[in-house]
Amino acid sequence: MIRTVVILLWAGVLAACSPATGGGRDAPTGAVLTLYGDIETVDRGPSQAALEPLFFAYGIEFGSACVFSTASLASLDQHEIRVDFPMGGDERRFSGPLLRDVLAIAGPQGTHLTVTALDGYQRTIPLEQVMAHDVILAIRADGEWLGIGGYGPALLVWPRGTDPDLAGQTDDDWVWGVFAIESVTPDET
Fold it and tell me: Helix, strand, or coil here: 2?
């Protein structure tokens, strides 16, 4: 119950700060993505349970991090992928920066990324896999900003329609509602 309330409160705050449509409107400026863990570049201090209940609800704690707003993500080189999502659905036009360009700013040192979505879904993906493909961190779909309540604030989009190595890829690594990415090196025990 507490987790649901936290998600609804967080979604309400972000939705109030986000444009309803992408049209000609500017990108929201508040932080929507936090990269943490084993990274080189940081621009914020530790997580604070009292002020950041969503991090607390998902057990996300860090001493420092690198944060991005939708506007800062939009300022990076934008790439477009036309692909069906969900798999087998209509083809849509997703756009945003390459995930590896976002990661280059934070400088991850781990071997994997644990991507966390607003609904609590987490997926740990080898960094090598992300770097080998033109994965984008989509912030728009069909020209509209991805919003809370939909696939936003960001969605991992893989070029499964044009990259032969990804042909037939399921939606498991297509994390939507992305708000946190941790650079980790999992124990191999």
Answer: helix
| CA–CA distances in Å: residue 171 to residues 47, 56, 159, 160, 166 | 30, 27, 12, 10, 11
52 has pLDDT over 60: yes
CA distance 88 to 104: 32
Residue owning tokens 């790439």: 79
Q: Where are the domains of the chain?
A: 2-20+27-184
Residue 165 phi/psi, 5-degree rounding, is -70, -15
What mean pLDDT do residues 84-110 have?
Answer: 93
Q: What residues does 183 pair with on adjacent strands?
A: 37, 113
Residue 171: CB partners within 8 Å, gap ≥ 6? Answer: 85, 86, 87
Pairing outcome for strands 112-117 and 178-184: antiparallel
- Cβ atoms of residues 57 and 2 within 8 Å: yes
What average pLDDT does the chain have? 86
- Answer whether residue 6 shows pLDDT above 80: no
Express each pLDDT in 59-79 by its tens digit.
Answer: 999 999 999 999 999 999 999
Bridge partners, 130 (sequence order): none
Which top CATH class is 2-20+27-184?
A: alpha beta
Closest CA to 135 of 166, 161, 99: 99
